[in-house]
Amino acid sequence: MEQTSPEIGVLVGRFQVDNLHPAHVSLINTVCQSHKRVLVFLGVTPVLVTKRNPLDFITRKEMILQQFPSLTVLSLPDMPSDEDWSKELDKRIREACPIGNVMLYGGRDSFHRAYSGLFPYTAVEQITQFSGTEVRKEISQTVKASPDFRAGVIFAAFNQYPKVYPTVDVAIVDKTAILLGRKAYQTLYRFVGGFVDPSDESFEAAALREAAEETGLQLGAVQYVGTARIDDWRYRNEEDKIITTLFVAEYLQGTPLAQDDIAELAWFDIAQLTEQVFVKEHRVLFRLLKNKYLALQESF
Predict the structure, then answer these.
(1) What is the distance between the alpha carbons of residues 282 and 185, in angstroms, rounded to a whole number?
(2) What residues does each domain of the chain span?
(3) 14 contacts 51 by C-beta, under 8 angstroms
(4) With the C-alpha atoms ordered 262, 264, 267, 268, is the resulting torsion angle positive or negative?
(5) What is the pLDDT of residue 264?
């Protein structure tokens, strides 16, 4: 008895590229030749416009339908676990096709290791080695002088959640003195600090890293003081804002050396310190230090 292929072929992928690669086209053609109905599920992340997932669902759907207008292209959200994701895929397949045998398809290094659902899987040999990551990296290095390119940049900028950039600032204390920094283009002083890096293990670790980069000093453990939104001039007219976490750290050893974007470091007598010493955006941090850091409160 002749064995027939399942009626429904299912492709799952991200297709996070500007144009379908020949490997994509070959994969889709292979599935289309074997099945009467073909569903393409595009992975959708809750995180918007990242290096790994720069394109939204509709953009990728239209790209595929331009070349394969007869396909059914559906969304598949990322889930907290592979098991949840597998169940959601099965559910969406049956919502689109309640009846019929199903075969899943992907490349050899595709999603099958994560899938634990109801349907069988077939790996399709790629006609050529292909990396979406490398394609995106190459695209990121090219500026095109076209309205479509500029429109795409504007679209991406507007289709993001408003962002808060986390920073850290450190009040470095040595008995009755506090170390402040001054930037080259300013006459007033500030707490040393900077942006939290994705590689930092914690805000405390970020604070110690930033303090070391800007002063070269060895400090003791940092102590939390509080948080505040900073009226940074770079983001004054932007929807995105900076919120910083202020810490106090005790000076242990070393000679202060102004580094990074700090032009000068200076010690100030804590008892004589006033708001007017600080740049405007750091005065809220001075008030936090004065009001909440109990170990120094009596000195102010």
Answers:
(1) 16
(2) 8-158, 164-297
(3) no
(4) negative
(5) 97
* Tokens standing for residue 149: 């390119």
Topology of domain 164-297, per CATH?
Nucleoside Triphosphate Pyrophosphohydrolase (3.90.79)
The 10s digit of each residue's pLDDT in 229-246 is 999 999 999 999 999 999
Please name the residue that has the structure tokens 């994701």.
85
Residues of the chain with pLDDT under 50: 1-2, 295, 299-300
Q: pTM, whole model, 2 decimals?
A: 0.83
Domain spanning 8-158, CATH class: alpha beta
pLDDT of amino acid 92: 97
